[in-house]
């Protein structure tokens, strides 16, 4: 049951963490920015994986819950002058309680109808943010201070990278342990067959709302980190398409796998960077209008290929590789 079972695994973990936290020492600002955004996105996708991958409650409102957490943190720090370290957990809890409200329909509906309910949640949250201009800044946005510890301010890209990576590692650890508890096993039972789970004594009302709460707490923390990274809260940071791409990251990485959440984010973010790098060459080779849409086309194509040829995602392929390595040179 241990996450790391052997000394070799512990050694590889320590080597990985050493390389990860030494990355800003030799990387460019652009590379640091890419990894920082990946880390923030990973926290949100972890929450979506708990809600959708483990509990089976499909949601397309994750970006909206991120917006809720981001604006809660922005208001607490910019308007009320509270510390970031108070605003961060408050953003997670606030987004979690909002998630419970919008998770109530899951008690009566499922499938396509639940998807539409979460889509509505996204637009309702954004509408509320835009209407309360005196508090949120409305369409103009809201300036947000950088996090600080005493006199030290996380102003540089490298310092914010370290802050984000520490919180991401904690999020991964928490998510990994949540799904191994009684609550996590109840989520899996609901996902596989909610009627059978209810017959076995699983309280659907409690556990479905718990899944929404936990998933939205992760989204709120991610949204808080995002607005403080940009030092500005704006609804433009939380477009609806992000919710779709987060679900696409789960498909590519592997639903129901914490490792899959990480691999999915890395895969699609690196794909974006590859498209950005090759964009000028594609513009010269084909019509500029087509080159401008190549990013969306490639994302959609990759998700379709995973659904057809690798529906269990990169996490399953990684498990196959590890199994082959353990049993080599024997076939079984």
SSE diagram, text form:
Elements: H1 7-21, H2 23-26, H3 29-54, H4 62-79, H5 84-103, H6 112-131, H7 133-136, E1 142-143, E2 148-149, E3 152-153, H8 157-178, H9 182-192, H10 194-199, H11 204-230, E4 232-233, H12 240-253, H13 258-285, H14 288-292, H15 294-309, H16 313-327
Antiparallel strand pairs: 1-4, 2-3
Structure commentary:
This protein has 332 residues and is an all-alpha fold. Helices cover 76% and strands 2% of the residues. It has one domain: Orthogonal Bundle (ABC transporter involved in vitamin B12 uptake, BtuC). The strands form two sheets. It has a two-stranded antiparallel sheet with strand order 1-4. A two-stranded antiparallel ribbon has the order 2-3. A hairpin with a 2-residue loop joins strand 2 and strand 3. The two termini are 23 Å apart.
Features:
332 residues, mainly alpha, ABC transporter involved in vitamin B12 uptake, BtuC, two-stranded antiparallel sheet, two-stranded antiparallel ribbon, 16 helices, 4 strands, globular
